[in-house]
Amino acid sequence: MKRMIDIRLDGTPLHLAPGTAFTLERYNPIFAFGSVQGSKVYRFTVPYSPVNNRLFQYAADPAAVWEPKNYRTEQYADGELIERGFTTLEGVKPDGYELSFGSNLGDFFGDLRDVPLNQIEFGNEVLPADHADIVPEKIVAGQTVYTLPTILNNQFYGTNTVAGFSGKVNEYLAGTGYVAGAPKVPMFNLHWVLRRLGELCGFTLSGEFMQDPDAQRLIIYNTFALDGATTLDYRNHLPAELSPRTLMLALTLPPFGLSVFFDVQRRAVMLSYTEQKLATPTRLDLTPYTLPSLYPGNMTDRRLELDWELDGDDGLMKTIPPAVAKYTGPEYLETTLLTLKGKFSTLIMDEATGLPKAEQQGITPLTGQMDKKFRPRFLFWEGVIEDVPRASSSYGTTSLSFVGSNNLRDKYWKRFEEFRLRTFPAQIQVAMTASQLAQLDFHRRAGEDVAVHVRGLDYYVAAVKARLPLGGYSTLDVWRR
User: pTM of the prediction?
Assistant: First the structure.
């Protein structure tokens, strides 16, 4: 049977020359810690023809004026949809138009891609004339926007003396509200920030992480005070070292290790826990389609090390407290470490009061401290408890620590660590059908299938290199499950 490939740009079938062939590459985001790759086809050429000339605005004609464009693309193999993305005209050659295809994940956030979060206009609001009247938790349409939890930090104003400051940020008294001499620092809800980015960049969010009631309480700690302000500018309270792109990538690392799936044409992002994706049942049996040769590869970095970047401007982090120390897997034969280091850490808790604590100078014009900085850290908003707005490094069944009960390693990394100790890499040559290739569309199907079965064993699929049109053998980069 003659194998076919059909490429449609903005709904118009592209004219392909006889014998046109190329390799479609895909990468599974569940193994992409700190990076996310989509699908791509390296440059290929299509001939000059009336259809192609109209599509590409007669770009080969020196008198023509053509504008760069990303064409919405659907690829079909043997009549079945196997891929969606975008095609770009890279140039013109003697034998036709040179094209490339990809998911364009780098352009997913548009012009805001690498803009620091503290420079993006997330919104603002007029503050009450008396800051004592600021609400401890602002909720809009059922979604927490920001909170002002009490934090112990007697170094907020450095060596300066500020009347009424007792060493507490967001100090609160029942009946009268926030104390006049205490700095007021709103801390924004992570899920609200993500959804607001979706509004600004034009995408929607879903997935287990967005639905997790514990995760919905995550707030982003900061030290930017409202001292003397009449308007709350949201962006001031977000970390300068993260952009929309790097924020999303940071979520794939410790503490939570998310898998990020992009549906680029639907403009949808699914945030899933990798720990749960690794438990996805294996449903695709490729045994009848594979060559018999399969040679296990070697790997040495089997031991897992989980770490995060601490805020060196917090004096309590100068000597690393046990509660925020990294996790290092036990020694195992002659293996080396696979170190995953995240951007977000947390604060340590004060045993006497149950409040988070720091020794860190804040950002405030009141005492000329506008040059101070803070690094990304998470806390859980607990609510106003016994007249105190509270946040903590733990909530429910999750503790922002690699040690102790409900720790991050046990909840979000245990399955990955156990897998890493026993697995091996390999390549499988598969005479794939179009339906099988469509089934392994990781991003569009949000990881519904991440593994295959071959001759009695299961393998996670890390990457697919499919030669199109189908008919020969495709290569799967796999890990023994």
Answer: 0.95
